[in-house]
């Protein structure tokens, strides 16, 4: 069994590593939690354990994981029905675009890209992202993440 990941991204190169690990993750719309007052977006997901696949395991397993972005100024979505909590989305990857194309500026936009044209754009003061594995996804069912009151 491969160890659980905990990765932090503070720049576009770091985010590209996290993007690789969340490629083909399944996300339920109900597990996308935007906490505007905290400037935070949390996305619960069931991600493929790519390390296990590289170790030669025939059947890749899924892990429950949380993806968190901090210092988020705005969160907008396209082609995602947040009113349909059981909708399952397939995460294709994550990109970062610096503000005005200037790499020396810490701010910019993180784009979470989903299959079938879905997307979430996060305008951030600076890039702060963390991916944390929470355990094996034994059932492959909903993640059961709930928004705190």
Description of the molecule:
With 149 residues, this protein is mainly β. The protein has helices at residues 12-22, 50-54, and strands at 6-9, 25-28, 32-35, 40-48, 62-70, 72-78, 88-98, 108-114, 119-124, 129-136. The model is unreliable at 139-149 (pLDDT under 50). It has one domain (4-134). The chain is globular and about 45 Å long. The strands form 2 sheets. It has a 5-stranded antiparallel β-sheet with strand order 1-10-5-4-3, covered by helices on one side. It contains 2 helices and 10 strands.
**What spatial form do the alpha-carbon principal axes imply?**
globular
Q: What assembly state would you assign to the polypeptide chains in this entry?
A: single chain
Strand order of the largest sheet: 1-10-5-4-3
Tell me the domain tally. 1
Secondary-structure element string: EHEEEHEEEEEE
Q: Compute the CA-based radius of gyration.
A: 15 Å
What secondary-structure arrangement, pairings included, does this model have?
Layout: E1 6-9, H1 12-22, E2 25-28, E3 32-35, E4 40-48, H2 50-54, E5 62-70, E6 72-78, E7 88-98, E8 108-114, E9 119-124, E10 129-136
Antiparallel strand pairs: 1-10, 2-7, 3-4, 4-5, 5-10, 6-9, 7-8, 8-9
């Amino acid at each position: 069994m491969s160890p659980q990941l905990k990765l932090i991204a503070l720049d576009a190169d770091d985010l590209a590593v996290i993007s690789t690990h969340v490629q083909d993750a399944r996300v339920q719309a109900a597990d996308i939690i935007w906490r505007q007052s905290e400037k935070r977006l949390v996305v619960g997901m069931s991600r493929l354990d790519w390390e296990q696949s590289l170790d030669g395991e025939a059947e890749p397993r899924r892990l429950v994981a949380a993806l968190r972005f901090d210092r988020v100024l705005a969160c907008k979505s396209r082609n995602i029905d947040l009113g349909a909590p059981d909708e399952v989305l397939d995460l294709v990857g994550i990109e970062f675009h610096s503000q005005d194309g200037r790499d020396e500026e810490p701010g910019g936009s993180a784009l979470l890209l989903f299959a079938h044209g879905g997307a979430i754009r996060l305008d951030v003061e600076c890039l702060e992202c963390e991916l944390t594995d929470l355990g094996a996804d034994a059932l492959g069912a909903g993640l059961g993440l709930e928004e705190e009151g």
